[in-house]
Design brief:
mainly alpha, MetI-like fold, 83% helix, 2 domains, single chain, 272 residues
């Protein structure tokens, strides 16, 4: 008996899903254009989508965007890699050490509760207006996203699985390699999707607070000139590249977690 809903049948294919994603985006642009064309909203405040896209195309055809885009992407990728690595190591360490976890818990909770955006001017003073201050801010945003997921992944390991592995004579190193890390891996990748966005936020906010290059710097310049189309062009450009980086993480996740059944496979199995 086929119990799949119409939505599951409609979106079961990646091609169909992509088509509807594009369709929704076109509908959004059409609605945006209609609001400005019929003077429901002033283009001075919300911009014109066609002008925004022309601005993006102009940036690429003139070549002015590549330097700024390169700076932002380097800041994002470096902050993402370092923050994720530190979060992974700290999560494994504190997840495996109860004493260290209890000792560090109040400080980690306090640092996580602190709005880390306020660190941007401090890092600018410490590291200057170059890429280092933006990377440092991105690391602070990415670290906690990954850390808490890895920590939870380690704590979620089944006690029965641990007991069976110890009965078979597994050493602490073998437990780490064969039990703890596989358990934390799925949690890691679920956090990496959010970490990509956090790395972008750190880079752009740092550029916005003070820089000489980057997409955030372009947005700040456009804002200073009351150029709303330039602001939306920068925001859309950052959004597209954030989606592209998230897609790269998804591809890596599928290759490393190929042993996990996908949702469609799970649904098919349930139907049978």
């Amino acid at each position: 008996m086929n119990r799949r809903s119409w939505a599951e049948r409609l979106f079961s294919s990646e091609g169909n899903l992509l088509f509807y994603h594009v369709l929704i985006f076109i509908a959004f642009v059409a609605m945006w254009k209609s609001l400005t064309t019929f003077n429901i909203m002033s283009p001075f405040f919300v911009g014109d989508p066609f002008v925004v896209f022309q601005r993006i195309v102009g940036w690429f055809t003139s070549g002015t965007i590549f330097r700024h885009l390169w700076v932002t992407l380097v800041e994002t990728v470096v902050a993402f890699l370092i923050g994720s690595g530190l979060g992974l190591l700290a999560g494994l360490w504190l997840g495996l050490s109860d004493a260290a976890s209890r000792l560090a818990s109040p400080y980690l909770k306090g640092l996580n509760a602190m709005p880390r955006v306020i660190l941007a001017p401090i890092f600018s003073v410490w590291f200057g207006l170059g890429m280092t201050s933006k990377i440092a801010l991105g690391i602070t945003l990415v670290f906690f996203v990954v850390f808490f997921n890895v920590y939870q992944g380690v704590k979620e390991v089944s006690p029965v699985t641990l007991a069976n592995a110890r009965m078979l004579g597994a050493s602490r190193r073998q437990l780490l390699r064969s039990v703890y890390i596989p358990s934390a891996t799925s949690w890691v990748f679920s956090s990496l999707h959010a970490a990509v966005g956090m790395a972008f936020v750190g880079a752009v906010i740092g550029e916005y607070m003070g820089s000489a290059a980057g997409v955030g710097y372009l947005i700040l310049q456009a804002e200073g000139l009351f150029d709303i189309n330039g602001v939306f062009a920068g925001v859309l450009l950052l959004t597209f590249f954030a989606i592209a980086l998230d897609a790269v993480v998804t591809v890596i996740e599928r290759r490393l977690l190929h042993w996990q059944p996908r949702h469609s496979e799970t649904v098919s199995g349930a139907e049978r």
